[in-house]
Design a protein that fits this description.
By secondary structure, the chain is of the alpha/beta class. It has nine helices and 14 strands. It folds into two domains: 3-132, NAD(P)-binding Rossmann-like Domain (Rossmann fold), CATH 3.40.50; 136-278 and 313-324, Dihydrodipicolinate Reductase, domain 2 (2-Layer Sandwich). Strands 8-9-10-7-11-12-13-14 form an eight-stranded mixed sheet, covered by helices on one side. A six-stranded parallel sheet has the order 3-2-1-4-5-6, with helices on both faces. Helix 4 runs parallel beside helix 5, helix 5 (109-122) runs antiparallel to helix 9 and helix 7 crosses helix 9. 48% of the residues are buried. Bound molecules: NADP nicotinamide-adenine-dinucleotide phosphate (NAP).
Length: 331
């Protein structure tokens, strides 16, 4: 039996990068059954050592290549800035590792196709870490939609905007801007609600520091007349509730919609229902559980976050940036 399918043995994780999200994911792994965080890789020994000390990790690598080559690692979680996802994922896949890569999966569709090709060639599991798709309250929303609880979906309203001054968010070389950093969440929600890509997109951005989009408004139009009204921002705080409106009612994903712990069904007639789904840890545990389920079953991609959807979301991001004439140096 393949080691990874042997349920008597833990799944051995490595984390590539030691920044903000890497720490949250390391915390989440502690709550995932059968997960063993065995290694971390950083550009520097000091950062690897500090991270490893905080999370009790045995193996501390001073390069990403050393982590990728570590024979004790089954799957690597990529937690570097967007612009590095392609190279970091390919490095690990070519070393025979499965990969869970942070969102946005890549800078654009062409990069993502390259990574998926390498995963297919190496027969390795690969998934975008779009945690929203695995959040129980969001899954409840999609169940209600599928069951027809709000009739036919007609509109989605969602925005993700916050104020941050970190340089990386404004650096074109790192794929800066609001769209790739946070706009991907409302776009993902619209994709979940309508179950497909938009037929048409109209958008507008304000390009400030670094020439990247500090804020953006997007209108997505779907065959049959569905419309999504979406916004993203990195210099402006926006509301963080989201609404999915149908012919017979509405679903409200409470603040913060992308990792909501509360969701309401508001029927056109009758009393609303509100359900609570407290996270087992911090919300990142669900995507890790999905990776485990796929690995144990020998699947190379997730049905909930398939490669096709990663590419469809990137199609939307690519089209929107093309409307603004915003391209990155590596494109
Ligand atoms: N799912 C979510 O909720 C969520 C939340 C936040 C971010 N993210 C995604 O996760 C990724 C990382 O975001 P983050 O907020 O964790 O970033 P961060 O705090 O800046 O950490 C990124 C890490 O990547 C490594 N790195 C390699 N090259 C780098 C470079 N040129 N500049 C900066 N760091 C570099 C560094 O680790 P070493 O020094 O150890 O090599 C750094 O600590 C992004 O793609 C972001 O979109 C997802």
């Amino acid at each position: 039996m393949n080691r990874i399918c042997d349920t008597t043995r833990p799944i051995r994780w490595g984390i590539l990068g030691t920044g903000y999200i890497a720490r949250l994911f390391a915390q989440a792994l502690r709550s995932v059954k059968d997960a063993d965080l065995v290694a971390v890789g950083s550009r520097t020994q000091a950062a690897a050592d500090a991270f490893a000390k905080d999370f009790g990790i045995r193996k501390r690598h001073a390069s990403y290549a050393a982590l990728a080559a570590d024979p004790d690692v089954d799957i690597v979680y990529i937690a570097t800035p967007h612009a590095l996802h392609k190279d970091n994922s390919i490095l690990c896949l070519n070393a025979g590792k499965a990969v869970l890569c942070e969102k946005p999966f890549c800078i654009n569709r062409a990069q993502a196709e390259e990574v998926i090709h390498v995963a297919t060639q190496n027969k390795r599991f690969l998934m975008e870490a779009m945690w929203t798709r695995f959040i129980p309250a969001v899954q409840q929303a999609t169940t209600w939609i599928r069951e027809g609880a709000i009739g036919e979906v007609r509109m989605v309203q969602a925005s993700f905007g916050f104020r941050d001054h970190e340089d990386k968010l404004f650096d074109p070389a790192l794929g800066g801007g609001s769209l790739l950093d946070v706009g991907i969440y409302p776009i993902t929600l619209a994709h979940l609600a309508f179950g497909k890509s938009p037929a048409r997109i109209e958008s507008m951005a304000w390009r400030g520091r670094g020439g990247v989009d500090e804020q953006a408004g997007m209108l997505l139009g779907y065959e049959g007349g569905g419309i999504a009204v979406l916004a993203s921002a990195i210099q402006t705080q926006t509301p963080h509730e989201a609404f999915i409106m149908g012919t017979e009612g509405m679903i409200r994903l409470h603040d913060t919609f992308w990792n909501a712990t509360q969701v309401s069904l508001v029927p056109a007639e009758g009393a609303p229902t509100t359900l609570n789904f407290p996270h087992a840890c911090n919300g990142y545990e669900y995507e890790a559980q999905e990776a485990h389920a796929c690995l144990r079953a020998g699947r190379l991609e997730s049905e909930t976050m398939p490669h096709r959807v990663t590419l469809e979301i990137l199609d939307s991001l690519d089209s929107i940036r093309a409307q603004w004439g915003l391209s990155y140096p590596m494109e």
